[in-house]
Specification:
Structural class: mainly beta
Strand order of the largest sheet: 2-3-10-4-9-8
Shape: globular
Helix content: 10-25%
Radius of gyration: 19 Å
Amino acid sequence: TPDGKMFFGQTEFIYIKEANATFEARIDSGAAVSSISAVNITEFERSGKKWYRFHMQANDGDLEIEAPFVRYSDIRQSSKTEMTRRPVVSLNLKIGDFSTASEFTLADRTHMQFPLLIGRTMLQDVAVVDVARSNIQNRADPDGLVILNRDEYNKLKEQGINPNATFDERQKNAAGQIAYPSNDYGANLGTD
């Protein structure tokens, strides 16, 4: 925009450093705080500070993520009258060429279409949302692991397409593989 803001569509690809993955995220200016799907949430201490470890289950995968605690947030969903207290963590994200740290509430979003929701606190002074468009910004990590929204992922799987085929193939040849005995030709010591 003329004042230097980015344009975001109703969905954008967001790279989260702590997960080392790119997520197709829902951009929601109606939500105050961003949210990331989290199950098996565990609090622990690192260097005298509170951290959280959680798992994200999406696209037939399970990612373990660790992030520093920021605060608690009381959330009221539009469909419920009572408040829910959720931990808020700080995650490093990249969208297009823009990088920042932002706050995310931890919530079980496994039943939702998108495992990642971007709210107003991240959008403020950064972007203008054009809900008529999707994925305006380029993917920050075009060759990395991608977590798509549930419907898109299921549609690709039904067509026999693995959206992460290139990434999976690269991971097979990555250094540091676990060594295991081979019955064919002695010990296989991996690629490292």
